[in-house]
Amino acid sequence: MARAVTTQHKTIATAAAWIVALLIFFPILYTIITSFKSEQEAIQGFALIPSGTIESYSEVQAQSGYFKFFLNSVLLSVGSTILALLVAIPAAWSMAFSPTKRTKDILMWMLSTKMMPAVAVLFPIYLIFRDSGLLDSRAGLMVMLMLINLPIVVWMLYTYFREIPGEILEAARMDGASLWNEIVYVLTPMAVPGIASTMLLNIILAWNEAFWTIRLTTTEAAPLTAFISSFSSPQGLFWAKLSAASTLAIAPILIMGWFSQKQLVRGLTFGAVK
Amino acid sequence: MKLRTLTLGLLSASALAFAAHAESITIATVNNADMIRMQTLTDDFTKANPDITLNWVTLEENVLRERVTTDIATKGGQYDVMTIGTYEVPIWAKQSWLLPLDKLGDDYDAKDILPAIAGGLSVDGKLYAAPFYGESSFVMYRKDLMEKAGLTMPDAPTWDFIKQAADKMTDRANGVNGVCLRGKAGWGENMAFLTAMSNSFGARWFDENWKPQFDQPEWKNTLQFYVDLMKANGPEGASSNGFNENLALFQQGKCGMWIDATVAASMVSDPKSSKVADKVGYALAPDNGLGKRGNWLWAWSLAIPAGTQKADAAQKFVSWATSKHYSELVASKLGWASAPPGTRSSLYANAEYQKAAPFAKMTLDSINAADPTHPTVKPVPYVGVQFVAIPEFQGLGTTVGQLFSAALAGQSSVDDALKQAQDAATAAMTEGGYIK
């Protein structure tokens, strides 16, 4: 009897999980469906079966060079992630293994910067970029994206590092390992799964960042977010073209997310259940 | 051998010299059919100016406005040519943010630009932006439904006639709405329509001393007429309809009349996208016999920011893109119907264009009927037909647009919406230092 109840619970839980997953995925699915409609069909109202035309894709391709934007997205998201890890690994290490009484406060303060509306600092940042000649440069944007995502990266790595027993590091120190060796040869290999999932999540966050990537670029450093933005039209139908552009822009990261979902889920839930 | 070396040497030297002189200019633009068409035709420009290369940045209208405003206000120098509208030009020119366009070339023929448009883009007699395409608004109506209703649309209808026709054309059982009008909140959305409409009702945003006028009977008449008309004859969910939503409704045969931008004419009469392409008639925007019609005036124009280092190359490009030659180029490649409308008198005098665009005369008459410097029945201290050319208007216009959209949706009464609009406008004008 108990077994039957468990099976029933499982079925309900599975069904509920599927419903929630479909609800969350639906906007993306509908974007993909809309990209295969004509402009007229796209604005006519809700319909799940498209006519299957690929005219929007050909128009989008003809209108803008996708590849240049794609390349910038890859460079910016990977570059900013590497920069973030270079800063965050030592920071998280010190907070996890040599905490002071203010460590928690610092962590909370870092996270609080994520709650500030980005537009509040648009002008100062814009002026700094202008004066440093960094407007429309990949290097400047990489630093910007790194700074935006740094709190999340530090927090995630901190949670990981806390799971590693301090005794192992002590043992390494007793064996004469320097600080550098301790981080590179002992801590990092043990934290590889954590670092990998942090990296993946950060790449996704950087890929999707649309406020700064649109406002600090013009042509040279513009990534896929700027590509999508160019298809919205004040006078003329554009939903199908916009959906095609969005599908092209999210496809790479969607595929990457699909293949790395285990690491991602592990990364996001690690340390959540204690 | 020597000759080959010499030739190669000369070629390399000239390539280097060319590279040293090559200038690239960055153009910020919105995504619309005319602008995208221009991007495909720039070979003509670069062939004539091999030392200039063009970089395009195409952005959504609101993002574009924010980007170029940030850039020009901070002298960021990111753009050499900007696409801006008749709202920005007078404000930015007064701030000395734009260069006057005085090097457009001898054959540019600036006098050919339609006077109403040139007036909206000039400050103290100097042109600060060159119009790429211009528009007014007018009535597009279904000739078949009008005939069925037993009415004939005059060339210059009154609002009473529009109401009478809408009442007769509405057939909700068959999905036909007598009239489709903008309801989506925004200074460039419902407020463009309602401000232009209010001009024909004798209303104004501010009196000569910048005192807001939403507490006056003219505004009450405007908004009440609009809400009643739309409730009786408008489409469902009209408070979220903008240009594109109404375009789709009209093209699908769901609107008897649609009062909106003249550029829509080429879209509703295109058989590839419109089910009613051969049944569309055009008339001037309605009036109330007070001497002003309810039509607006807008021109997407090319301007050069004062911070650019490449002013000469930028002026060359602006001159090319807004010239008579460009219209002829578009016509030779894509037909006269694709030529950018609403900017030059010569286009409307062209018999081939008139033939290809049956709405040409009505478009020209609508543009000529708008006067941005004297937009209202009573005197006003501002420039602009469907907007008030002051920096505060974007925020205030959108706030008032939200209040009026809520009145259309039935979330508030007309009186409440007007009272709140008066309060919001008074607060904004006090804060801006216009009134005490």
How does the SSE layout of this entry go?
The complex is a heterodimer of chains A (274) and B (436).
Chain A: H1 2-35, H2 39-44, H3 55-63, H4 66-97, H5 103-112, H6 122-131, H7 138-163, H8 166-174, H9 179-190, H10 192-208, H11 211-215, H12 224-229, H13 239-259, H14 261-269
Helix pairs in contact in A: 1-13, 3-13, 4-7, 4-10, 7-10, 8-9, 10-14
Chain B: H1 2-21, E1 23-30, H2 33-40, H3 43-48, E2 52-59, H4 61-73, E3 81-84, H5 88-94, H6 115-120, E4 122-123, E5 126-127, E6 130-142, H7 143-148, H8 159-169, E7 177-180, H9 190-200, H10 217-233, H11 243-251, E8 255-261, H12 264-268, E9 280-284, E10 297-303, H13 311-321, H14 324-334, H15 345-349, H16 351-356, H17 360-368, H18 393-408, H19 414-431
Parallel strand pairs in B: 1-2, 1-3, 7-8
Antiparallel strand pairs in B: 3-10, 4-5, 6-8, 6-9, 6-10
Helix pairs in contact in B: 18-19
Protein name (chain A): Carbohydrate ABC transporter permease
Domain ABC transmembrane type-1 (chain A): 70-260
Main location (chain A): membrane
Summarize the structure.
Chain A: It comes from Mesorhizobium waimense. The complex is a heterodimer of chains A (274) and B (436). Chain A is mainly α and 274 residues long.
In one word, what is the shape of chain A?
Answer: globular
Tally the helices of chain A: what do you get? 14
Largest interface: A-B, 29 and 38 residues
Count of DSSP strands of chain A:
0
Number of H/I helices of chain B: 19
Backbone structural class of chain B: alpha/beta
Strand content of chain A: under 5%
Q: Give the name of the CATH architecture of the largest domain in chain B.
A: 3-Layer(aba) Sandwich
Roughly what percent helix of chain A? over 70%
The stretches of 5 or more residues of chain B where confidence is low (pLDDT under 50) are: 15-20
Provide the CATH superfamily of one domain in chain A: MetI-like
- Helix-strand category of chain A: mainly alpha
Largest sheet of chain A: none
Termini separation of chain A comes to: 31 Å
Which quaternary structure do these chains form? heterodimer
- Report the strand count of chain B: 10
Which of globular, elongated, flat, extended, rod-shaped describes the shape of chain B? globular
CATH topology of one domain in chain A: MetI-like fold
State Rg of chain B: 24 Å
**Helix-strand sequence of chain A:** HHHHHHHHHHHHHH
